[in-house]
UniProtKB/TrEMBL annotation:
Taxonomic path: Bacteria, Bacillati, Bacillota, Clostridia, Peptostreptococcales
Domain (Sigma-54 factor interaction): residue spans on this chain: 260-489
Keywords for the protein's UniProt record, in alphabetical order: ATP-binding, CBS domain, Coiled coil, Nucleotide-binding, Transcription, Transcription regulation
Residue runs in coiled coils: 226-253
Native species: Anaeromicrobium sediminis
Domain PAS: from-to ranges: 127-166
Name used for this protein in its record: Sigma-54-dependent Fis family transcriptional regulator
Length: 567
């Protein structure tokens, strides 16, 4: 846990507390009474909201601090602490001993502890590998030896000190591990002579992390022990697969939502709820306008779930009603005229042990809704033309941009299906509700598209960002990405200026600006941003010099630079 935390007396002013938070570079301050007991908390975001509300910063924090503070005891296990934080949807929690704060536990602390435990697990695994009768060699994707057990030392006469950390080809030029690295395919039970006078049966297994090859493990036995080879290799591969699966499950749980950009409170709450529900088998209903990222959330939930099956998506509005049933449930040969002779597997079967994403669920015909409800209740699907039930363990995530409750009143959507699907509901905000995320999203897409198209981008005019922030984005994130891609592809010599923004966006942004030209708060904010940008340019990026020119504290300048996204 972190020992660097801020405790303040409940009589302190908002202004003084905020200054301390900036100085100590912490996100929150814990309010204590005369006996040092924890009685409240206030965060930098809370202060920012008070500033926007024009609250007098000389007022006492007690009036505005949150009085309900979740806390844990120091003797709680890391696992229980993590579960508590996930349940409460928080990223940090104070640790209390004898009613006094002794530290702050964060998600980063838990992650570091996980890596420590992982290292211990790898250490234990190395001890197990060392005691295996077969020779084991593990190399990274560049062919550098990472593990060389005692049986390998005995078999080849090469000690661990002589080979670990070296390129395998220096000692074994014709090693088959290099074929597994190059072809990214397993080699099993190959007769091989890696060294003169030594003939072995070798297997080399590639190890992946998130689809990327990170290592190859080989196991060798003398040819005289062929009879026992099959069973031993099977056990070894099962151990490696189990280790890889558990590793990927934990990593996915922590990082699968990292591609969802946003600092808006609503989107953060959606991410926290999605992370919490991902580890369960509960059905999820994602609502929101088109282009708000419903499928992105669905994929993130699937990835974080650790489910071994596929993520399968189907758009209920894009498939004709008479074909939807065969797409979802599949069919046996001869089920209907035109059916493939071999039959066809349905999406439910294909997503077994995985996730089925039903997009635009509000457009699903009523007769199909009845059949979907039955599958959700029984967990059994029937192919068209077959009376044989197929058990499926498929997690359902549905999405729609329609008001399902309104459709229920109009008898266009079944109420019982709605409650089956909406065990947990995520309501994604539109982009116009999260204006603060427009620039970070734009920068994310710029980086993504520049790398994909291999275009050298030199500069983006500041006015471009102002225009993008002023537009309503009725097409939401999808529209923003398309516009960014258009600007990058059409830009001249790596410079993006106002001229490359579609005309209708510029006009709409200017119109919105003109309609609100007397917004004093916005005008002051714009002037402050412009002055800071000019001074930073004058000072050549020297923050100390810029702070002196502006006659403000350097910590205040850091805060303003972050607030206005000035690099």
């Amino acid at each position: 846990m972190n020992k660097n935390f801020l405790k303040v007396n409940y009589n302190c002013t908002i202004k003084s507390v905020f200054g301390l938070m900036v100085e100590m570079d912490v996100e929150e301050a814990f309010m204590i009474d005369e006996k040092s007991n924890l009685i409240g908390i206030i965060t930098t975001k809370d202060v920012e909201k008070l500033i926007r509300r024009k609250v007098d910063l000389n007022e006492r924090i007690y009036k505005y601090a949150k009085k309900k503070v979740y806390s844990i005891k120091g003797n709680l296990s890391v696992k229980d602490a993590r579960n508590f934080m996930m349940t409460k949807g928080i990223g940090r929690v104070p640790v209390i001993e004898n009613n006094k704060i002794t530290g702050v536990l964060t998600n980063n602390n838990i992650r570091d502890n996980f890596y420590l435990e992982l290292e211990k697990m790898f250490e234990l695994n190395n001890k197990i590998i060392d005691n295996l009768h077969e020779a084991v060699c593990i190399c990274d994707d560049a062919g550098t030896v990472k593990v060389w057990n005692k049986s390998a030392e005995k078999l080849y006469g090469v000690t661990k000190d002589e080979i670990v950390g070296r390129y395998l080809g220096d000692i074994f030029p014709n090693a088959l591990i290099f074929h597994a690295i190059k072809e990214k395919k397993p080699l099993e039970n190959r007769i091989h002579s890696p060294k003169e006078g030594k003939t072995v049966i070798l297997s080399a297994i590639p190890i992946y992390n998130n689809g990327k090859l990170i290592a190859v493990a080989s196991s060798d036995r003398d040819i005289t022990e062929v009879t026992a080879l099959s069973e031993e290799l099977k056990k070894t591969k099962e151990k490696m697969k189990l280790l890889q699966k558990e590793y990927e499950r934990e990593i996915a749980s922590n990082y699968s939502f990292s591609t969802i950009i946003g600092s808006n409170q609503k989107i953060i709450e959606c991410i926290q709820l999605a992370q919490k529900v991902s580890q369960t088998s509960a059905s999820v209903l994602i609502t929101g306008e088109s282009g708000t990222g419903k499928e992105v959330f669905a994929k993130a939930i699937h990835k974080a779930s650790g489910r071994s099956g596929h993520f399968v998506a189907i758009n209920c509005s894009a498939i004709p009603a008479h074909l939807l049933e065969s797409e979802l449930f599949g069919y046996d040969k001869g089920a209907f005229t035109g059916a493939v002779n071999t039959g066809k597997i349905g999406k439910f079967e294909f997503a077994n042990n995985g996730t089925l994403f039903l997009d635009e669920i509000g457009d699903m015909p009523l007769e199909m809704q009845v059949k979907i409800l039955r599958v959700l209740q029984d967990g059994i699907v029937y192919r068209l033309g077959s009376s044989k039930g197929i058990v499926t363990n498929t997690r359902i995530i549905a999405a729609t941009n329609k008001d399902l409750k309104k459709l229920i009143l109009e008898d266009k959507f079944r109420e019982d299906l709605y409650y089956r699907l909406a065990v947990v509901q995520l309501e994604l905000p539109s982009l116009r509700e999260r204006k603060e995320d427009i620039v970070p999203l734009a920068n994310y897409f710029i980086k993504q598209i520049v790398e994909k198209e291999e275009i050298e981008l030199k500069e983006i005019e500041d006015e471009v960002y102002s225009i993008l922030k002023g537009y309503e984005w009725k097409g939401n994130i999808r529209e923003l990405k398309n516009v960014i891609e258009r600007m990058i592809i059409l830009c001249d010599k790596g410079y993006i200026t106002k001229e490359f923004i579609p005309k209708y966006i510029v006009e709409a942004s200017v119109m919105a600006e003109e309609e609100n030209e007397y917004d004093l708060e916005k005008a002051v904010r714009n002037m402050e941003e412009r002055i800071i940008r000019d001074v930073m340019h004058m000072s050549g990026g020297n923050k100390l010099k810029a702070a002196k020119i502006l006659n403000i504290k350097r910590s205040t300048l850091y805060y303003k630079l972050k607030l206005y996204n000035i690099k």
